[in-house]
Amino acid sequence: MNLKYSLLAAILVILGFVLLILPAKEQLPETNPEVLQYELNEVTHFISTDKVAERIINQDPTLLLIDVRMADDYLNYSLPGAENIPLKEILHPDWDDLLNQTDRDIVFYSNADVYAEQAWMFARRKGYKKLFVMQGGLNNWFATIIQPTEPPETSSTKEIEAYQFRKAAGIYFCGGQAIVSEVNPQDALVITRKNKKTKVEGGC
Amino acid sequence: MKDTNQRTNRLSIAAIFFVLVIIIGFITLHKPEFEFKVPIDQALDQVLSFEDEMTPEKATDIVSNNMAGYQFVDVRNPYEFAKGHIETAINISSKELLASDNVALFDQMTKDSVRVILYGYNQSEANGSWMILKQLGYKNVKILLGGYEYYSGEKYNMFSESEIPQYMVEQPKYNFAALMEELSDGNSAIKPGNNHTEVIIPERKKKKSKVEGGC
Fold it and tell me: If I label A194, which of B45, B88, B110, B180 is the partner at 20 to 30 A Cα–Cα?
């Protein structure tokens, strides 16, 4: 009888010790390859340059831009408010606090979207969440926001509205006075008209 | 006496139950089908080494000379694949990448030391699949720079004599800083912190001519 009791007690004590010896749980479990594969296929990680522009203009506090290019390139030109984490330093523990959070949407960008996606992949594999990649990178940013091409007159109103938003956004980023305060495309439309006048007068 | 027996019984039942719960716990412990075999820092080094990137020139060389030991894998969907693909390529769309028969195929190709070259419409499209396979431990997987877009000559002329090949997508297409300065020229007075320098003034003159032409 007593033996049985002590046996059970011994088992529990041993299990307790095993728990003690077990390594402390890692902060985040690694993301499963299948999950990553799924997210890549669904392209949920891409965010368009239009969306990024809109959020910068609206001074969205939940947006955190991360420039994954070399420090030189970053210093030469970067998007407003962007932080610099070169791709080769993406795993450095210094950046853990910045990347491991859920308050903000982190948007990686590089000149195109390949390096940014690679950075996304490594951060995502570490289990970090709310990570995105700016589609097409800075090359696309300049082609769509800074110097958008005018759509042909036959294009849909949606396309024309998108173009007008881009034009206004471009002027905003070039240091113009345009302040697009609303996400609403109609507001953007009104502002754009005003801006077109200024453009004719003085170039953007 | 009877009382003690009952207690012993209950005790053993509890003990058995206890052990059973632990055993069931171990059995149902979820073991994922796929695991990254390459440690994350090694994977980063692999990416940064650019070793597994194949230029379109090399790819055309392989196809036109029928070189053995290479297998092109098209990761676009079957519809895109049907519209046109690299002659010797097989189609494994990125959605099906980790399907069991495809994994078996990759295992087989690794065993036969066939070099697998992944490509999508552009580099970006195959990038994810390539990185997943690399990190799963397939060493012989490469990615085609420029993708099918470049290879097929749909958009670019492969033999154009530009300094930086167009398939190097991460090269800046603009001089960002200069272009921004040029474009914000007319508005630079508004920009905060711009009044401290006179260096900008000669640059402004230079740019006026450009503004007339372009913007």
Answer: B180
Q: Is the Cβ pair A114, B170 closer than 8 Å? A: yes
| Per-residue pLDDT at A138 exceeds 90 | yes
The half-sphere exposure of A95 on its side-chain side, counting CA atoms within 13 A, is 20
The residue extents of the domains of chain A are 33-141, 148-202
Second-level CATH architecture of A33-141: 3-Layer(aba) Sandwich (3.40)
pLDDT in tens, A37-85: 999 888 889 999 999 999 999 999 999 999 999 999 999 999 999 999 9
The better pLDDT of the pair B209, A91 is held by A91
* Residue of B183, B200, B209 to mutate when probing chain A, most A C-beta within 10 A: B183
Query: Residues of A numbered 143-172 whose beta carbons fall under 8 angstroms of chain B's beta carbons: which are they?
Result: 143, 146-147, 170-171
Compute the C-alpha angle B109/B117/B171, nearest 5°. Answer: 155
Task: Using CB atoms, pick whichever of B11, B44, B127 lies closest to residue A114.
Answer: B127
Residues B74 and B78: their CA atoms lie apart, in Å, by: 9
Give yes or no for A113 touching B (CB within 8 A). yes
pLDDT of residue A204 exceeding 60, the answer is no
- B75: its two tokens: 């990761």
pLDDT digit string (tens) for A84-136? 999 989 998 888 888 988 889 999 999 999 999 999 999 999 989 899 999 99
Domain architecture of chain B: domains with CATH: 40-151 (3.40.250.10), 176-214 (no CATH)
Whether residue B93 contacts residue B181, with contact meaning beta carbons closer than 8 Å, is answered with: no
Q: Hey, are the CB atoms on A34 and B131 less than 8 Å from each other?
A: no
Query: ipTM of the assembly?
Result: 0.73
Q: Which residue type occupies B16? A: I
Give residue B150's pLDDT band: very low, low, confident or very high (50, 70, 90): confident
pLDDT digits (tens, 9 = 90+) for B90-137: 999 999 999 999 999 999 999 999 999 999 998 999 999 999 999 999
User: B141-144 and B53-54: which strand pairing?
Assistant: parallel
Taking the C-alpha atoms of residue B212 and residue B182, their distance in angstroms, rounded to an integer, is: 11
Q: Is B15 on the interface with A (CB under 8 A)?
A: yes
Closest residue by Cα to residue A45 from A162, A124, A102 = A124
